[in-house]
Amino acid sequence: MVKKLFSLIILALLVIMLLPLMTDFAPFAELSRVAEKYVQKGPAEVGGQNLVTSVIVTYRGLDTLGEIAVLFIATAGIGFLLGKSSGKHKRSEASQLVNTGTAFLLPIILLFGVFIFLHGHLTPGGGFQGGVVIASGILLFVLANADSQISSNLLHWIEDLSGAFYVIIGLLGLILAGGFLDNSILPLGQFGKLISAGAIPLIYTLIGLKVGAELVGILNNMQRSQ
Amino acid sequence: MTNIFIGVLGVIMIAAALIAIYQKSLLSAIVAAGVISLLASIIYILLAAPDVAMTEAAIGSGLTTIVFLYALNKIRKIKADK
């Protein structure tokens, strides 16, 4: 009884706290100072058509590197906790529906993932989203082909190399251009073209590969520990 | 119009959240939790945040659901072994 009353009180407090956010909300009339600088100078300095994704890997590139590191630590933790496979595992065959669907959908899903991270500077999305889409495609493949084993060595190599190259590109920015992860180490190119915006497509490709490999690694670990 | 649609989606999300908590079958609870993320991603699109919507749809309703299903499967096997 007391417990219920207590949770009701906490709920009421939450409502009192959060309700003003909804009732008093008014759209911002003007941008904050940092955002205004990004909007005004971004297209010329960074050269990406999609300002949001461009800001994420250039001005806020260090944050993105940190996020990738967090994901890496999470993957390593899951691998450590789940440990080695028990060795024997029998898996039932996938149904024909899954098999046929996978054969039809897998190339499209992989292509879509690659499209998302290659067009990171042009359209919504970027490396993280592309990597997740690729991981979900590979998950579908694993579901359909129960016996298949994804080489964890290959995954580790993809992950390590793309992570290392990401940092190397950042350091190159420090040497050749204005600062860590500055994208103007490569020519900015023509605005809105696929190969433009300096190093952004390169960075997003590396992020896509790294995130994809990490997430497939998580799923691989979970599947093996079954 | 958009506000009404977002409101309807919000109500369905709350219903799905309640299902996820009170449903006895864990499988249905996992699916209900995935539905919440899927509806949230629709709301993000309506609020003009396609980047966040893509992440939410792929991670929240895709990968998280799968990871939960693997975990559920493992728990069932451990119970069956005992």
Task: Describe what is shown at a glance.
By secondary structure, chain A is an all-alpha fold. Chain A contains eight helices and no strands.
Q: Taking Cα atoms only, what radius of gyration of chain A do you get, to the nearest Å?
A: 22 Å
Helix content of chain B: over 70%
Which whole number gives the mean pLDDT of chain A?
A: 81
Major sheet attributes of chain B: none
N to C succession of SSEs of chain A:
HHHHHHHH
Low-confidence stretches of chain A: none
| Helix and strand element order of chain B | HHH
Q: Pairing-aware structural class of the strands and helices of chain B?
A: mainly alpha
| Count of domain modules of chain B | 1
What would your notes on this structure say?
- The complex is a heterodimer of chains A (226) and B (82).
- By secondary structure, chain A is mainly α.
- Chain A has one domain (49-82, 89-224).
- Helix content of chain A is 69%, strand content 0%.
- Chain A is built from eight helices and no strands.
- Chain A has helices at 2-23, 33-45, 51-57, 61-82, 96-118, 127-144, 152-176, 200-224.
- Chain B is mainly α.
- Chain B has one domain (2-81).
- Chain B is built from three helices and no strands.
- Chain B has helices at 2-22, 26-46, 50-81.
- In chain B, helix 1 (2-22) packs antiparallel against helix 2 (26-46) and helix 2 (26-46) packs antiparallel against helix 3 (50-81).
- The longest helix of chain B has 32 residues, at 50-81.
- Chain B is elongated, with a radius of gyration of 15 Å.
- The model of chain B has no long low-confidence stretch (mean pLDDT 87).
- At the A-B interface, helix 6 and helix 8 of A face helix 3 of B.
Can you lay out the helices and strands and say which pair or pack?
The complex is a heterodimer of chains A (226) and B (82).
Chain A: H1 2-23, H2 33-45, H3 51-57, H4 61-82, H5 96-118, H6 127-144, H7 152-176, H8 200-224
Chain B: H1 2-22, H2 26-46, H3 50-81
Helix pairs in contact in B: 1-2, 2-3
